[in-house]
Amino acid sequence: MASRQSVLRERRIFINIPFDDPYERLYIALIAGLGGLGLIPQSVLQIPPSDNRLNRIFGLLQKCGSSINDLSRIELDRKAPRTPRFNMPFEAGLALALTLLGKSGQLRRRHRPFIFEAKKYRLLKSTSDLNGVDPCIHGGTAVGMLRALTKAFQRQGERRTVGDLLPVYHDLWGFSLHLKRANRLRDLFDGVSFRQLSQAARKIAGRRHLLRS
Amino acid sequence: MAPYLIRGRDPSLMETAKELGLSRVRLKQVDEIVDRIIPPRGRIRFAAKKMAKKKR
Predict the structure, then answer these.
(1) What CATH number matches the domain at A4-207, 3.90.1150, 3.40.50, 3.30.70, 2.40.170?
(2) Do the Cβ atoms of A195 and B22 come within 8 Å?
(3) Most buried among A5, A140, A209, B21, using CB within 10 Å?
(4) Range 13-32 of B in CB contact (< 8 A) with A
(5) The pTM is what?
(6) Which helix (H) or strand (E) holds A40?
């Protein structure tokens, strides 16, 4: 029988996503979807900026049974000098390294990385090393994100359809507006808001009878 | 309103809060906003009303 720690590890999902305004709806949909599936999102937002940030990111990844790596927005930023956003592919690389170590038996615990993209076949062009990996396509929409999540986690967590998760997303979107107003926030890409959104998603899913308590 | 005593009855919710490292103040804020969006029903609602009366 699986120990409590390993069950908890399976439920922890590391989310490697862009933190910017146009991504906000997908961010809320992702947290709502994971909450509805009974999974616990984990993010670098929980890690305070410090010297050993990389170590802590790697440590957090190791504590998670799976990771969601969204490579849909690795384009050039607007500020000069214009640079591509390397954080997401870099962290995806860490997650893939963990998987390879797990498969070779060098690590006792296994890690399952999921690659998310907005457009079909773009991954082949941007990161040809990932040829053979089947990405989950969300199409840049909240419903697409929920669809991609149900596809990715059909064997993990609770079995839910997009129709089950959509009300959780709508409620969590309402929650996010309340939270922004109450805490005078411009966006929700900070550690405290991330934790509150994750907890709210879990609670909303419970209220909508999606989860066994 | 969502008193702490009531939330204590759902261990999985408390486990998630602990896992996320959410402070009690922030947790209370989550409860209050969620209660506003989806009001609690049945026994939980009754207990919440009772607690609100006590506070008054």
Answers:
(1) 3.40.50
(2) yes
(3) A140
(4) 13, 15-17, 19-22, 26-27, 29-31
(5) 0.87
(6) strand A40-42
